[in-house]
Design goal:
mainly alpha
Length: about 70
């Protein structure tokens, strides 16, 4: 389980933005294998939707636990 309030070294909203750029570039270039970044983007969007936009990106683990009922 991640720390309750870790130091923010990479914020969730930044990762969401960056993964969006990756997906857009992948679609524009017709890249194969966009499934992994697409799933990661969805998990980070879930974390963003929980109100954790400025939280450390490690907090995506909490969203995964909540989605799977394993917290």
């Amino acid at each position: 389980m991640p720390e309750a309030d870790p130091d923010v070294t990479s914020a969730v909203d930044t990762v969401v933005k960056d993964l969006g750029i990756v997906l857009e570039a992948g679609h524009e270039t017709q890249a194969a294998l966009l499934s992994l970044p697409a799933v990661a983007h969805q998990l980070f969007l879930t974390t963003l939707g929980r109100g954790d936009s400025r939280a450390d990106d490690s907090q995506v683990i909490r969203s995964n636990h909540l989605l799977n009922g394993t917290n």
